[in-house]
From TrEMBL:
GO cellular component: apoplast; cytoplasm
Protein name: GDP dissociation inhibitor
Superkingdom per UniProt: Eukaryota
InterPro entries hit by this protein: GDP_dissociation_inhibitor
Family: Belongs to the Rab GDI family.
Any one biological process term the GO annotation gives: small GTPase-mediated signal transduction
Protein purpose: Regulates the GDP/GTP exchange reaction of most RAB proteins by inhibiting the dissociation of GDP from them, and the subsequent binding of GTP.
Membrane among keywords: no
Length: 445
């Protein structure tokens, strides 16, 4: 271990593993360490006995729930947009060869007390029970405008500069009602709150385009995909990638202590009396707790069930978004469900998560609107965890710290954090201009 590295990465959470893989591919000499004896950190995947031990303090789960090893329960479950940035990172790095993906069955939204399919195309908008006949026409026109919008072609702009016009003003031009604005902003554009309404409309329009492009890619019922056996495979896939490019991995390294010189710049990491020297450290907030601040908490419930979520067309994998306004909250609530169809549970079993930014100290009460959508559950676990973000100046100390995972059940914010960190560390943007369809065709050959 007494060697010198360009970068030492601490923690094997998904963000840290993606960065470790990307930096290794760039030719940097990387050492990756974790105090745990398993991959994944906070975003690890547990079998049933591990889940039971974590939440119930008992070594073994009841036999009637099936074999423990048939469960792969992700602690930070998130679906991937089929055409999104994470998929581009996977293809860019060729990590897809270590993983198998399957489309997610359904994408739903909670509006006026009911779970409804999210319409994302003019045709779906026309069929949707979310809107009356006149609203359907207006929404169809808006979806058509979004689909045809091309920043380089002023003819598609309808006289509006979307980098100046707010989302609220753009939508007003089409005369959409509040509930429609709600599901478009939260369930299609995937905003976590209503701030986007007062910001330039360009971001929302590009998010909507991504949703419909992702939906078209697999011709499925949703724009999302998810790995077979769950997300626990992802950190390990990037770890393999790093190793292929010369990265060194060390698990079960206790007390990874980051060392600094008198100017406050990082010089290395010490564990078990040995110090590895380095120029930069990349880590999750738990390794440098004096350089982060608490920004909130996430409340979540984990359910084991023997049926799909009601009113989702018997979907074996599904996301339901409950927009903040529908619940009288400051932030959205998310329901995630996956099952034996993605090999994350034994046949006939479903795993559901309900998560949201905690606004009280009582997760049971706070999560009730989401839990009520699940129907009868076999087992229910509650959890609440703190979220942190870095407050250091990386240009001064060469420490690059990730932000804690949020309550969302999609990867949008996670990948943005990774790409921002990559740019800070390397001084360059990651080029993700890969042709996804060409890459998919190459995979199939």
């Amino acid at each position: 271990m007494d060697e010198e590295y360009e970068v030492i990465v601490l923690g094997t959470g998904l963000k840290e593993c993606i960065l470790s893989g990307l930096l290794s591919v760039d030719g940097l000499k990387v050492l990756h360490m974790d105090r745990n004896d398993y991959y994944g950190g906070e975003s690890t995947s547990l079998n049933l006995n591990q889940l039971w031990k974590k939440f119930r303090g008992e070594e073994k789960a009841p036999a009637h729930l099936g074999s423990s090893r048939d469960y792969n329960i992700d602690m930070m479950p998130k679906f991937m947009m089929a055409n999104g940035k994470l998929v581009r990172v996977l293809i860019h790095t060729d990590v897809t060869k270590y993983l198998s993906f399957k489309a997610v069955d359904g994408s739903y939204v909670f509006v006026k007390g009911k779970v409804q399919k999210v319409p994302a195309t003019p045709m779906e908008a026309f069929k949707s029970p979310l809107m009356g006949i006149f609203e359907k026409r207006r929404a169809g026109k808006f979806f058509s405008y979004v689909q045809e919008y091309d920043e380089k072609d002023p003819k598609t702009h309808d006289g509006m500069d979307l980098r100046r016009v707010t989302t609220k003003d753009l939508i007003a031009k089409f005369g959409l009602v509040e509930d429609t604005i709600d599901f478009i902003g939260h369930a299609v554009a995937l905003h976590c709150n209503d701030n986007h309404l007062h910001q330039p409309a360009y971001d929302t329009v590009m998010r909507m385009k991504l949703y419909s492009e992702s939906l078209a890619r697999f011709q499925g019922g949703s724009p999302y995909i998810y790995p077979l056996y769950g997300l626990g495979e992802l950190p390990q896939a990037f770890a393999r990638l790093s190793a292929v490019y010369g990265g060194t991995y060390m698990l079960n390294k206790p007390e990874c202590k980051v060392e600094f010189d008198e100017e406050g710049k990082v010089t290395g990491v010490t564990s078990e009396g040995e110090t590895a020297k380095c120029k930069k450290v990349v880590c999750d907030p738990s390794y440098l707790s004096n350089k982060v601040r608490k920004i909130g908490r996430v409340a979540r419930a984990i359910a084991i069930m023997s049926h799909p979520i009601p009113n989702t067309n018997d979907s074996h994998s599904v996301q339901v978004i409950l927009p903040q306004k529908q619940l009288g909250r400051k932030s959205d609530m998310y329901v995630f469900c996956c099952s034996y169809s993605h090999n994350v549970a034994p046949k006939g079993k479903f795993i559901a998560f309900v998560s949201t930014d905690a606004e009280t100290d009582n997760p049971q009460t706070e999560l009730k609107p989401g839990i009520d959508l699940l129907g009868p559950v076999d087992e229910l676990f509650f959890d609440i965890y703190d979220r942190y973000e870095p407050v250091n100046e990386p240009t001064l100390d060469n420490c690059f710290i990730s932000t804690s995972y949020d309550a969302t059940t999609h990867f949008d914010t996670t990948v943005v954090d990774v790409l921002n960190m990559y740019k800070l560390i390397t001084g360059k943007e990651l080029d993700l201009s890969v042709d996804l369809n060409a890459a998919s065709a190459a995979e199939e050959e």
